[in-house]
Design a protein that fits this description.
The protein is of the alpha+beta class. The chain has a domain of 127 residues: Sandwich (Jelly Rolls), CATH 2.60.120.620. Helices cover 18% and strands 31% of the residues. The chain is built from two helices and eleven strands, in the order βαββαββββββββ. The strands form two sheets. A six-stranded antiparallel beta sheet has the order 1-9-6-11-4-3. The chain has a five-stranded antiparallel beta sheet with strand order 2-5-10-7-8, with no helix packed on it. It is globular.
Length: 191
């Protein structure tokens, strides 16, 4: 039997390993900035999120943004979106037991995270299905992209994840003795 299949309303998560970022400089900048920036409390519990970082504030971040711009352009071309611009970028330092509760990024189109310093047991990022399918799906014989209700990606140094801003996500608690350091960002329509 032959049937035509179409995937409507899919959620896409792009991933890559970046080896071009200067993680040591980014880490040093994160700790230096934490000393002078009270930060904000949006999705973080027990950790620190910086205020938005401006272009020219740090060369390593500017270089990372240049790389992110080309990757976001790739995502836009692949999905038929117009060219997007960086709205904001910020640093996260999550010490032991810190986590990020379930949230999304209202006001942007694509969001993402790059892990500057992360290891086993520091909490993975989890994306939640939000279409209510869990109320309709029978217990699947095996978990597939169609039937699962959560997707988990490892937080590991050099990992980059880009996703639609409406996709709800959380980051598990840091169960290690070291800080998990990442940088998050939002892209949206050109203003």
């Amino acid at each position: 039997m032959s049937m035509h299949t179409e995937l409507w309303f899919p959620n896409v998560i792009w991933s890559a390993i970046l080896n071009s970022a200067d993680n040591q400089e980014l880490k040093n900048f994160a700790y230096d900035l934490q000393k002078i920036d009270k930060g904000v409390n949006i999705s973080n519990y027990g950790g620190w999120q910086s205020n938005a970082i401006s272009s020219g504030q740090n060369v390593a971040i500017d270089n990372l943004v240049s790389d992110l711009n080309s990757r976001i352009d790739f995502c836009c071309k692949q999905t038929g979106l117009p060219k997007l611009q960086l709205y904001n970028i910020w640093l996260n330092i999550n010490p032991p037991n810190a986590y990020n509760h379930l949230h999304n990024h209202v006001g942007s189109v694509l969001s993402g995270v790059y892990y500057i310093d992360a290891e086993e047991n520091q909490g993975n990022i989890q994306f939640e299905r939000s279409d209510g399918a869990e109320n309709f799906l029978p217990t699947p014989e095996k978990s597939t992209y169609f039937s699962c209700t959560r997707a988990t990606y490892k937080s590991k140094t050099n990992a980059l994840y880009i996703f639609p801003s409406w996709l709800k996500h959380n980051v598990e608690g840091n169960k290690s003795k070291n800080d998990r350091i990442s940088i998050s960002f939002n892209y949206g329509e050109k203003r």
